[in-house]
Design brief:
about 120 residues; Serine Threonine Protein Phosphatase 5, Tetratricopeptide repeat; 6 helices; about 0% strand; globular
C-alpha cells in the first residue's frame, strides 16, 4: 500500500495493513532479509501515520493481544504516544523474555522514559 492508498483506506484496512506488515517484518528479520524488513517497516509507519492523522490510532490497541510478538511490539511502542498505560506493560513483558524482541523493547522503554523517543 502506498501513501495515496493509505489516505483512501478505511480504518479497518489500515489496521490490517499495520498487522500484516508487522508480521512480514518479523518474517523478514528471521530470514535475514533486511530489504524486505525495511519495506515492511515503511508500511507500518505509513499506516500508523495515517491512523494518527485521523486521530484513530487507538484502533490498534486490540492488536496488543496478538499472538505475534512483532505485532505486539510495534503496537506497544506506538501506544506509548497515546495510551502508555497499555503499551508499557507489553514492552516490559517483551523486555523480560529472551529472543528477538527483548533488546528493542528495552531500548524503546529506555528512550520513552528518558523523553527521547521519537514517533514517526
Amino acid at each position: 500500500m502506498n501513501v495515496r492508498n493509505f489516505r483512501k483506506a478505511s480504518i479497518e484496512e489500515l489496521v490490517q495493513e499495520y498487522e500484516q506488515s508487522a508480521i512480514a517484518y518479523g518474517q523478514a528479520l528471521n530470514a535475514a532479509d533486511h530489504r524486505a524488513a525495511n519495506r515492511a517497516a515503511d508500511r507500518i509507519i505509513g499506516a500508523y501515520r495515517e491512523l494518527r492523522s485521523r486521530a484513530v490510532a487507538s484502533h490498534l490497541l486490540p492488536l496488543l493481544k496478538s499472538e505475534d510478538d512483532f505485532v505486539r511490539s510495534f503496537v506497544a511502542a506506538h501506544a506509548l504516544e497515546f495510551a502508555p498505560e497499555q503499551g508499557e506493560p507489553v514492552l516490559q513483558e517483551l523486555a523480560a523474555r529472551p529472543g528477538l524482541r527483548r533488546t528493542p523493547a528495552e531500548y524503546t522503554l529506555k528512550a520513552w522514559r528518558e523523553g527521547t523517543l521519537k514517533f514517526p
